[in-house]
Amino acid sequence: MSGNHSNSKHPFLDRDHSILAFNERVMDWARRPDVPPLERLRYLSIVSSNLDEFFEVRVAPHLTAAQANEQRGLYTAQSFEKLSEKIHELVAQQYAIYNDELLPLLEKKGIKLISHGERNPRQRRWVKEFFVNEVQPLLMPVGLDPAHPFPQVANKSLNFIVRLAGKDAFGRENEIAIVKVPRILPRFFRMPPIKGSKQTHFVSISSLIRSHLGDLFPGRQVTEFSQFRVTRHSDLAVDEEEVKNLRTALRKGLQQRHYGQALRLEVSAGCSEFLSNFLLEQFALPAKALYRVPGPVNLVRLNQLIDKVDAPALRFEAYNGGWPAQLTPGQSYFERLQQGDVLIHQPYESFDAVLAFLREAVEDPDVLAIKQTIYRTGAKSELMNLLREAVRRGKEVTAVVELKARFDEEANINYAERLESVGAQVVYGVVGLKTHAKMLLVTRREASGLKRYAHLSTGNYNP
């Protein structure tokens, strides 16, 4: 539920504020001194990722009601204001932890994100050379004029807005330009080590570009600039009763997802009123949808920095689940299951045992059919490869693919099409319900007749 239910006979917790409260609890882990520094940074990144999804899925009806200044069910201008107030508070705490606690702590541990003002001449030369050779060829500045209106800006992409003085090569005084930063560019780069220093230095893509924005506009003067990022409504709403082909309808929706209704605008803390107001107007957003952040506009990408640091002591120890106690490695699953059921407790016991069960079923010539639910299986799924191999070996394969796996729709559609292309039967669950469980049924020919073996669990088949 959403909205204010305090006067209700049966009050409910507010769903949207509950999600934000949950993220406050996640953020508490980023504050804990007993958590390794890189893991604290990762928790901040998780909060950012969760907030992105919150905007993409939950905020649109609040904003729409506020812009129309009318109540729409549980959504009102007041519900939008209360939500915005809470999110601004949460984001302020997030960047305070990032700037005041984690960056100084990481510097003490020998890891430093180095800004333009802190770079020595040798580092500046390296950054300049790197920019010219690796980054500048991929950037395409767009000067705004009647022939070049404000460009389409994709959901959650990194961009710069620049205010210019002077005239361009064609004598035009186009004052505003937009620079899109391609997603293909990494967000952090490791700099060459300094002789005699134990510190590892990194530079962010936003710092690297802002240092050389002027190079993109020869003959012009950059008077103001800011990085910016817009978050858009991205939930795919499909009336399953109406559509004849859910897969086609979802694929059509995926094409539009990156350019849905704008809901949040993030800019640098020092962005001028002129530029922030210009952007708010372009995206048709109210002032409360503006977030001025003292740092990178996308803390989700901190994961890239964490992955580049070679310091096991600054992370949690890797946890590897043991082999399930009720299974003997190398023993046939079919022989073992004829003796009785097996309970596996994940993640304490390894999911590899489930994959091994499927692998044996695929390779066993006496197995005739495999039926399985597919919800979220991961980008590179051994499980999906095994199902395709089962079809190639002449087994009957049926997959119940849940297409409404939020933000995994495209992966699931692609898997469904790949399975169908080799001859598997693919069905798409039940209208109005969501398949969110692990179910795997194996039919095997044995001396006593056909026998079925099953795996049942909560969750999804993502190892």
> Could you say how many structural domains there are in total?
2
Average of the residue pLDDT scores: 87
* H/E topology pattern: HHHEHEEEEEHEHEHEHHHEHEHEEE
Annotation field: number of helices: 12
How much of the sequence lies in strands comes to 15-25%
Q: What structural class do the secondary elements suggest?
A: alpha/beta
Global morphology:
globular
What this model shows, in words?
The protein is α/β, with parallel strands linked by helices and 463 residues long. It folds into two domains: 15-235 and 245-314, polyphosphate kinase like, CATH 3.30.1840.10; 333-458, 2-Layer Sandwich (Endonuclease, Chain A), CATH 3.30.870. The chain is built from twelve helices and 14 strands. The strands form three sheets. A six-stranded mixed beta sheet has the order 2-4-3-7-8-9, sandwiched between helices. Strand 11 (396-401), helix 12 and strand 12 (425-427) form a beta-alpha-beta unit. Helix 1 packs parallel to helix 3, helix 2 packs antiparallel against helix 3 and helix 10 (352-363) runs parallel beside helix 11. It is globular, with a radius of gyration of 26 Å. The two termini are 32 Å apart. The model is unreliable at 238-244 (pLDDT under 50).
